[in-house]
Every structure is written in structure tokens, then in C-alpha cells.
Write a structure and sequence with these properties.
The protein is of the alpha+beta class. It is built from 11 helices and 14 strands. Strands 1, 2, 3, 4, 5, 10, 11, 12, 13 and 14 form a 10-stranded mixed sheet that branches. Strands 6-7 form a two-stranded antiparallel sheet. Strands 8-9 form a two-stranded antiparallel sheet. A hairpin with a 3-residue loop joins strand 13 and strand 14. The longest helix has 21 residues.
Length: about 400
């Protein structure tokens, strides 16, 4: 067995629902992320890539089933470069990186390109296929943008509540008040804006052309630097009339793509770059579907155990902020310094294009470790229907501890 390493990461800006990227197909977004990460390793011959593993949560529309292969072709890579698409909903691109790291470690591959994409704006509406031609009754079109759809009637109702209601239940269970959630959400926006202003994302985000007149999107659209807890406090609850979850303390619907290049240490010469971080541990966990927001707790604990380190060793955490309440519940359970969590902003501000978020977390984590000199970091993400994934990275660029 050998080790697997993160060599480079890139992503598109994340666009708002029906925003600047609304006219951009998901396969084109994916291709832009592919070209963006390969531009960081210009010495690498794309024909040397052994495989592409891509994440996508929808697949029902322009994703065209295997959007990973579509991205390879649209990005202009040799047709000899294979690609597959994996779907673990919100965790799809982190799952892609996990699959790639195992392939490298087992010796099945030396260089694997991973990533993910989602256009939640362009997700199609679907009609259930009738059992016979020309049914007499009405048929309802169902949005494929987010959440359960065409639910099997044998599923218990407790499992199939909306994602928002599931997190209202989480707030009840752990007594996490509205004010604390709004404070966390405002922090996400403020830190994201500070990171952009300081230039942290300049090396991670590649612009996307949005029309034929030369207009480009260069920055995440959802960041609101003026957010404060008091401003967020005036928003009405979305899922319960007396609830705590609002549009301000939950991640928005988004469009975007991310990419991460992984390889063995021996592949460094062909890649033409030194690695940023070693994939030191991985974890996966599942529980009752409605409790999905809490699943990262055990997934990260398992990843740390496999890496042979503990939370006291960790200096950076990238936790996807599907909802402020679930991020707070997880951080509380880990009993960690909240100051190490999402210091460059999180999904509440940056956006959460489902299939792309895991790649964003991993790329951001690798760059945070490089910037800080910290040795160990954790990327974790909750996944609808009761799952979670986590990855531990070890900084190999020079560490402070």
C-alpha cells in the first residue's frame, strides 16, 4: 500500500439559484472546474490521468447520467481518459475523492482527477411514467432540485420529512436557539467576505464566462458581508410557523463545480508539483434519515481513528453548513474550539451546490493547512437520508506542530 495525496484544487464561483450561472449547463460547469485544476499543474499531460471520479446528486437532466465523462470530453481531455459519476447526494464529490484515494493507495491508479458539479437552477421537473398509455387522471410534475421525490409509500413518514423539518427536530433535540443559529450564519458571511478580500480564494476559484459578451462570474454570489445576527433575526421561519430555521441560517440553493487532483507520491514528477496534503483517514457513517445533520459526528470520529490522531491534534475543520443548527450540533459534540471551524466562511455564505460541496471542503482544507502550517485537518459533510462522510488531511508542505 502507498499513500495518496492532494496535489491541486480548484472550483468555480458558486452562483445563486437563478443567478449568474443559471444559463450555464452543469456539464459545462464541470468542464470549467476540470480545466481550472489542470491549469494549476501545467506540466501534467492530461493523458496521464488514470481515471476521473466525479460527484453529482441529480443526473436527471443536462448532467446526462455520467456528467464526469461529459466533463472530460467537453474539457478537451484525450478520449482515452475514462470517467465515472458517483452519487452520494451532498457528499458526492467527497465520496469521489475517497474512492480516488483508495485507488491510489491500492496501486490501481497513480493520478486521479476528482470533483463534482450541481446546477440546482437547471435541475429539471419530472413526471412519473404512467403504468399505461393515456391515463385519465392528472399527473403532477416533481422538482428534482432538492430533497425527497417520488417517495416510496413504504417509507416511514418519520424518515421522509423535509430537510428543514429534520433540522427543526435537531434544534429541539439539542436545544440550540434561533439566536445562536443566526450568530453562526452571520459569522459565515463575515468570514467568507474577509477571506475573499484577503485573497484566499484567488488561487482556488476560477472565473466562469456567463454570456457571449465577455461577462464573467469571479466571486461567490451568495456572500453578504453586511450580515449581522440582528438583521437575520427579522427573517420568518420557513418550515414551522414557530420554528428557528430561516432562509438566513440555512445554506441556499446554488450552482457550481469543484475539482481536486489526487495522486501517489511517485506521481509528483509527472504532475510537476509537490503535494499539498496526505489523505490520512476516512470515515463514513449512517443513522436514521431524519437525523442526517448529526451524522458527521461519528463519520469524523472514525476518520480520526483511522488516521491515528485525536481532536486535540486538529487545527482546521471544514464542515459543510447545510444548516447552522446541524453545524453547531456537530461542533458541540466534538467539543472543539469553534474558532477552527470554517474560518474562510461556509456553505451558508458561499453556497451549497450539492455535488460540488465535498470538493470545495477538501480543497479549502488543504489550502488552510498550507496557509497556517497546521498539521491535521478534517473535512466533513452531512448527507440527506441519514449519512455523512469525513476525510482527515495531513499537511505535507511544512507544519507548525
Amino acid at each position: 500500500m502507498t499513500d495518496s495525496y492532494v496535489y491541486a484544487a480548484a472550483r468555480t464561483p458558486f452562483g445563486r439559484f437563478s443567478g449568474a450561472l443559471a444559463g450555464t449547463r452543469p456539464d459545462d460547469l464541470a468542464a470549467r472546474a476540470v480545466n481550472g485544476v489542470l491549469a494549476k499543474v501545467p506540466a501534467l499531460d492530461p493523458g496521464e490521468i488514470d481515471d476521473v471520479v466525479w460527484g453529482n446528486a441529480n443526473g436527471a437532466g443536462e448532467d446526462n447520467r455520467n456528467v464526469g465523462r461529459m466533463a472530460v470530453l467537453l474539457a478537451g481531455l484525450p478520449t482515452s481518459v475514462p470517467a465515472t459519476t458517483v452519487n452520494r447526494l451532498c457528499g458526492s464529490s467527497l465520496d469521489a475523492a475517497i474512492i480516488a484515494s483508495r485507488a491510489v493507495e491500492s496501486g490501481d491508479a497513480d493520478i486521479v482527477l476528482t470533483g463534482g458539479v450541481e446546477s440546482m437552477t437547471r435541475a429539471p421537473w419530472v413526471l412519473p411514467k404512467p403504468n399505461r398509455a393515456f391515463p385519465a387522471g392528472d399527473v403532477t410534475a416533481v422538482s428534482t432540485t432538492l430533497g425527497w421525490r417520488l417517495v416510496n409509500e413504504r417509507m416511514p413518514e418519520a424518515w421522509t420529512v423535509s430537510l428543514g423539518e429534520a433540522n427543526e427536530q435537531l434544534a429541539d433535540r439539542f436545544a440550540i436557539p434561533r439566536r445562536r443559529q443566526d450568530e453562526f450564519a452571520a459569522r459565515s458571511h463575515q468570514l467568507a467576505d474577509a477571506a475573499w478580500t484577503a485573497g484566499f480564494y484567488d488561487d482556488l476559484v476560477v472565473p466562469v464566462a456567463v454570456d457571449d459578451k465577455g461577462a464573467t462570474l469571479t466571486r461567490d454570489e451568495g456572500v453578504r458581508p453586511g450580515s449581522t445576527p440582528d438583521k437575520l433575526a427579522v427573517l420568518k421561519p420557513v418550515f414551522r410557523t414557530d420554528g428557528v430555521i430561516t432562509a438566513g441560517n440555512a445554506s441556499p440553493l446554488s450552482d457550481g463545480a469543484s475539482a481536486v487532483l489526487l495522486g501517489s507520491r511517485a506521481a509528483a514528477a509527472r504532475i510537476g508539483a509537490d503535494p499539498l496534503a496526505r489523505v490520512a483517514g476516512r470515515g463514513v457513517f449512517a443513522l436514521d434519515p431524519q437525523m442526517f445533520g448529526f451524522a458527521p459526528v461519528e463519520a469524523a470520529n472514525r476518520a480520526l481513528k483511522s488516521a491515528g490522531v485525536t481532536w486535540s491534534d486538529v487545527g482546521a475543520v471544514e464542515l459543510n453548513e447545510a444548516f447552522a443548527v446541524q453545524a453547531l450540533a456537530c461542533a458541540d459534540a466534538w467539543d472543539i474550539d469553534p474558532g477552527i471551524v470554517n474560518t474562510k466562511g461556509g456553505a451558508i455564505a458561499l453556497g451549497h451546490p450539492l455535488g460540488a460541496s465535498g470538493g470545495r471542503l477538501l480543497g479549502t482544507l488543504a489550502h488552510r493547512l498550507t496557509e497556517s502550517g497546521g498539521r491535521w485537518g478534517v473535512a466533513a459533510i452531512c448527507i440527506g437520508v441519514g449519512q455523512a462522510l469525513a476525510v482527515v488531511l495531513e499537511n505535507v508542505t511544512g507544519t507548525s506542530r
